[in-house]
Every structure is written in C-alpha cells, then in structure tokens.
Amino acid sequence: MGAWLKKPHNISSLNEVITIQSIQWHVVIVVVVVVVVVSVVVVVVVVVMILINIIIIVTTILEGLYCRRSLS
Fold first, then answer.
1. Is 32 left (phi over 0), alpha (psi -120 to 50) or beta?
2. pTM of the predicted model over 0.90
C-alpha cells in the first residue's frame, strides 16, 4: 500500500477518482433536489385542482339550493 501511494501517477489518478466521486455526489444532490422540487410542485398543483373542483361543486350545489328556494 505504501509503495502504491509513493508513485506520483497513482496519486494523480487517486485525485481524479476523488474529484469524479465529488462530481457524482454533486450530481446526486442536484438530482435529489430536482426530484423533491418537482414532486412538491405536482402535489401543490393536484391539491389546488382538487380545491378548485370542491369550490365549484359547492357553489353549484348552493346555487341549485338558492334557485329551488327562490322558485318555491
């Protein structure tokens, strides 16, 4: 192990491996952040659409009840 570390080209290749690993960690972190942000946005959009549908349904029901009361 000591003889392997004494050779300079092995040290440079070791440094390249370390930089490649750090780049891969940055890529993994970026991918995780992007996935989390996209999933949060999708959840927010779905919740907003559900709320809009509920509001539309409630308003139509209330309008129907109001129309029935006004007719009777």
1. alpha
2. no
In whole angstroms, give the CA distance from residue 40 to residue 57: 26
The region that residue 53 occupies, defined by phi over 0 for left and psi between -120 and 50 for alpha, beta otherwise, is: alpha
Domain hosting residue 56, numbered range: 2-71
pLDDT digits (tens, 9 = 90+) for 5-23: 455 555 566 666 666 677 7
- Give the side-chain half-sphere CA count within 13 A for 9: 0
CA angle 38, 41, 44 (to 5 degrees): 150
Question: What is the enclosing helix (H) or strand (E) of 12?
Answer: helix 8-71
